[in-house]
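DATA SHEET
Item: assembly model
Revision: 1
Owner: S.N.
Input lines:
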Amino acid sequence: MEFGEETSPALVFDKDAFDLTVEDVYDISYVIGRDLLKISGSGEEVSDLQFRIVRVLEMFETLVNKYNLSLEELRMERDNLKGELQKVLSEQGASREGTTVGPNQLVVDLTDPNRPRFTMQELKEVLQERNQLKAQLMVAQEELQLYKSGILPNAEAAMVEVDLDTPPASQDSLGNLTDAKEERSTIGKMFSFRRK
Amino acid sequence: PKEYLGMLEYKREHEAKLIQNIILDLKPKGVVVNMMPTLPAYILFMCVRHADYLNDDSKLKSLMNSIISGVKKVIMTYNKDLDLLSFWLSNTYQLLNCLKQYSGEEEFMKNNTPRQMKNCLQNFDLSEHRQIISDLAIHIYHQFISVMERALTPIIVPGMLEHESLQGISSMKPTGLRKRSNSVYEEDSESYTISSILQQLSHFHSTMTQHGVEQGLSKQVIKQAFFIIGAATLNNMMLRKDMCSCRKGMQIRCNISYLEEWLKENDLLNTNAMDTLQPLSQAAWLLQVNKSTDEDAREISEKCTELNSVQIVKILNSYTPIDDFEKRVTPTFVKKVQSFLQDRLEGSAQLMVDADYRFQVTFPFCPSSQALELLQVPLSLHLGFLTRI
């Protein structure tokens, strides 16, 4: 006793090829068989045709069967592999605090003191600032040297606004030192660098 | 193009394999049997023809006996399988017809073509084996009927008597061949309805059609099925007062009309199946008709020809009015009816119908126009050891 689909045999012809089952092939056989009975022709012609159709449908049955079996086998294999993968991952996860690592991901041990902490952007900014401070320091050191060697008159003397772009102190600029036209506080001068 | 003679040759040692593949292991569903359901019968007959042609007495006898015991074995092993029973009912009948058509006996040769004449058995008279095969066919038929009955029994009383389809507002028009499946449950699957019965009938009918059961035989099956339905319903009524009301009468007549419509839809009106429902039909009429005057009593005695007096009286006495306003059937009235029935010549009047009664099945000769020499043996039958002669 079968609980088949709610279709009459002829509706099998509307089905998609890849959805066919062996039962459908039998329904096809039944419908075609009935149609052949309606043909009145010389017995011989219809008979030959009939047996050729039988042969084709037999081959069709074999193919549909094979297709469905292969499909089933592949599905089972895929499900098995999925299951195995799940098992492996869950085992890994159990020993590694349960993280699943993707292909472009990095696992960081948070207890590691040498773990990476800063972003590229943060790093860029810090480096830039460091470079500037370094330059400032060099200039300050030079100036100190000039003071020490007596070239520059006084630690309180007005400082020059140093332009990092221009070449190092020339005679002209030294002459202008005494020009207190653009007098600024020492510290102000010290720290007022024209930025590029 | 080779001229074939319509015979199939096989080596003696392959007989067992032949029986195995074409009888014992053959499934009732497949490419070949769905397209040409009676081909197995023809193949077997073509083997028989060749053994006869060889004038080989022992080979022929062995083959015939193997065929018979092979089919018997399948029937016994799968005695509840409707598909297999139907398939072998069809093929056994076809084999029987072939044995007659090509027997060489005059009465069976009337419609033969000249070619078919040539194909007749030449050396042996197989009429005895024919008789055995005929008995086998009868046996298969009865087995089929009992499987059918077993399937119908749980749904007859609920479907014919208990389910009340008339009181609903929604149209409960049942459909015949709605599903190819054997599902007999309605959407409201708490009880079986008349639709369940019709679906079962459609299932039997389509199974027989699929297996190429000859039409006349198919009609005999349907007639028997209708008898079973009518008898079971009537017997149940006899035992239950709650089934003897005017409303029930109406319900029954409605269901009978659905059954008639089913016959019509399936081109089975000329089967005398409806006749088997007459007793039930009359009982239903009796429930609905007026039961008070003398004229009523006379009419009852005249109309209820298929019910005996015991049954008529029982129904009258069991009659249950719907409400307090409806009058009961008076004992006087019953006596009146009995007096009209007195003139009837009835043998032993039994209350219950013998629901096990089986109409005698017949297998009238059905010649076929099939030309044996045109038949081939498809590969999927795995009979490569047969040689087409």
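QC remark: Confidence is low (pLDDT under 50) at residues 168-173, 175-183, 185-189 of chain B.
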